[in-house]
Amino acid sequence: MKRVLSGIQPTADSFHLGNYLGAVKQWVDLQKDHDAFYCVVDLHALTVETEPALLRRRTLVAAAQLIALGLDPSKCTLFIQSHLSEHNQLGWVLECLAGFGEASRMTQFKDKSQKSGADRTVVGLFTYPILQAADIMLYQAHRVPVGEDQRQHIELTRDLGQRFNSRYGETFVIPEAHIMKSAAKINDLQDPTAKMSKSSASNAGVIDILDATDINVKKIKSAVTDAGKEVVFDEKNKPGISNLLTIHSALSGISITELENEFAGKGYGDFKGAVADVVTAYFAPVREKTQQLLADEAALLKILNDGSQKARAVASATLDKTYAALGLVPRNK
Ligand code: AQP
Description:
By secondary structure, this protein is mostly helical. It contains 13 helices and five strands. Helix 8 links the parallel strand 4 (143-145) and strand 5. Helix 3 (52-68) packs across helix 12 (268-295). It is globular. The model has no long low-confidence stretch (mean pLDDT 96). The site of adenosine-5'-tetraphosphate has 18 residues, from helix 1.
């Protein structure tokens, strides 16, 4: 069985629609026929300043949401990144292999550091993609299901893996990005040319899946649309309607062409109402299941600890192999 690995940051009170459609939905599908490892990447979350109690809560909320969205701990390995020190250990090895110039070219770093300014940008934000490369290669993953915004980081991972293998001998599987074309990038409802993102200046165009129904209905009904009144997919001239068509289609399973036919001759208002119905019907049970899981914290922690144990078996074997390839003298176990 091919192996997949992916992670998500506990940096918000809820995942947004982009996180779900761009990444987590693929995670759920892939667990059926892959050896799947998924983690809540809490160490990555330290690149933004967070209050400790909030980080703890968001980590558990992230894990509960993943299960509520369809991850089945009996079919995949679900764990918390900081439970395994191997991530940091391999991260250091890869930092010693990565060029300063290549890390400087990461567009997410450039964007985020520009937004917060040099004085508030931490070194961890700069080395973040290298820790992410360690997350992936530690599990010898073949595929990494992510949204389009992560493509460059996966390329860096491949480059580092290939460099290590050619210098020190075959050690790592070289992973591929698994990006589902149709929902690779979900855009902001208020600025449909920018990706939906938790760090947008305004939350008005971001659909948080745990938000109450009325909040999300209001956001969808106020989504920015385009001149004209036809519901047709045209990303260049109608980015707003195209984004809503992508969302509807990805959640309902109805093709975009069928949706265009269904709404031919009807206005944007009817269509937005239908998108709101689909979104709320889809996420209402997820919200309820998330609350149920959070209500029994001990049971949730047990799932995560079991996952960490399974993950450790793979991670420690890769780290031993890596250290041996580098010539580090093994310690007695
Ligand atoms: N708008 C999006 N469309 C498709 N996929 C997306 N992802 C994020 N936004 C979109 C995918 O979600 C996964 C989780 O990534 P993360 O934990 O790193 O979250 P993030 O990328 O930090 O989320 P944001 O909202 O995009 O945060 P900021 O504001 O920090 O940029 C990834 O697979 C990502 O591709």
